[in-house]
Write a structure and sequence with these properties.
The protein is an alpha/beta fold and 217 residues long. Helix content is 38%, strand content 19%.
């Protein structure tokens, strides 16, 4: 079976877009055939996905399409890829009606593991409560692990790793704080000719994320 996973987050602004497109860029540069997908009707992120991967990014949306159609789209476009990466939207459980139409629903419908990206810039052990809540909230999706974003120091990194050990969830890496890789208000220009995935981001992903481990999930 091909490698497949969904990048989600507790809330918007956590860094899932940075992680998703950084992984897409890294794996494509390493000669993997990467098929990108985007939860919801977002047409901007899909353009950047396509520029990075060289393949059309496909929207997966259970608000405007049936779950059966979403499964068919995913199967059709991912059939010849080495890796399928789905970028979530908003918070994991945020939909148009509670969790209906949410990233969680896409993960459940497709039965693919979830990587949770957590903004850890102002927290350490408190992330244990957050992760425990997200992991235990529903029992019909699988978590591949956690990636911590905006980590301040090696000590901070160790503390977050200990949280994962305590909860028995895989820590897939810690991205350091870096203003250079933050997307900010990237949509204001709508210039698809300028890729946001700098080589610095690719190097940070390569050096700080256990992407080889992720490919075995």
């Amino acid at each position: 079976m091909k490698c497949q996973f969904l990048i989600a987050a507790p809330m918007s602004g956590s860094g899932k877009t940075t992680v998703a497109r950084g992984l897409m860029a890294l794996l494509t540069q390493k000669s993997y055939s990467v098929q990108p997908f985007k939860c919801g009707p977002d047409y901007i992120d899909t353009k950047f996905h396509e520029a990075v991967c060289g393949r059309p990014s496909i929207n997966l949306d259970t608000f405007m399409a049936t779950p059966e159609h979403v499964v068919k789209l995913y199967s059709r476009y991912g059939a010849d890829a080495d890796v399928c990466i789905v970028e979530g939207m908003m918070g994991l459980f945020d939909g148009y009606d509670r969790d209906r139409g949410s990233t969680y629903e896409i993960a459940r419908v497709l039965d693919i593991p979830v990587v949770l990206v957590v903004d850890a810039r102002s927290a350490a052990y408190s992330t244990a409560a957050l992760l425990s809540g997200f992991i235990g909230f529903r029992n019909d999706i699988r978590f591949a692990g956690v990636i911590f974003n905006k980590v301040g120091s090696e000590r901070h990194k160790r503390m977050l790793s200990e949280v994962c050990d305590e909860l028995q969830v895989s820590c897939l890496g810690c991205l350091p704080k870096s203003a250079d890789i933050e997307q900010g208000s990237r949509y204001l220009g709508l210039d698809y000719s300028v890729l946001p995935e700098s080589q610095k981001l690719v190097r940070l992903i390569d050096g700080n994320i256990a992407w080889k481990k992720l490919l075995t999930r």
